[in-house]
Amino acid sequence: MAKLALYNMEGQKTGSMEASDAIFAVEVNEAVLHTVVVNHLANVRQGTQSTKTRTEVRGGGKKPWRQKGTGRARQGSIRAPQWVGGGVALGPKPRSYSYSINKKVKRVALKSALTAKYNDYKVFVVEGLKLDEIKTAKIAALLKGLGESSALIVTADADNNVYMSSRNIKGVEASFVGSLNTYDILKHGALVLSKEAVEKIEEVYA
Fold this sequence. Notes:
With 206 residues, this protein is of the alpha/beta class.
């Protein structure tokens, strides 16, 4: 059985708890991790880049010179791709880069990411991870106590106070179990979970 260290809101170790091997002790599948991360990055692309073709560039309606007799190559428009200021041939146009992958693959990747963090001793479980008010200093003190500067803080359910208290700290992001994803876990140095979040992850993914 995997064991996770328990900490308080000051970052001090207070004990340990058992965790499911089906979540924190699986075989780390690097190929699946790569597949899911590439998919995530593709899905968040805006795809708004655009270049103008020869039909969209202003001007160029008149043939620059007659077809024959000048000694120069024939030209139909000064906005053809080979002209300076002309349109772009085969340039990018707005499109969607998103595509879907199997849900089972995402589950395998998530478990692999959690196990990888556990193997690197970068999973911290905090008892009473809850704030009565928006207070960045409390989150900063917690991370200082844990000795981490980059972390993903995960609560069982969406917690606005934790989110607002975390967003001004560089390298720190707050999330909840319902929106947990492989990319965010791997992106940050440490994974800080509330005790309730661990229980909910085991309930959903075990």
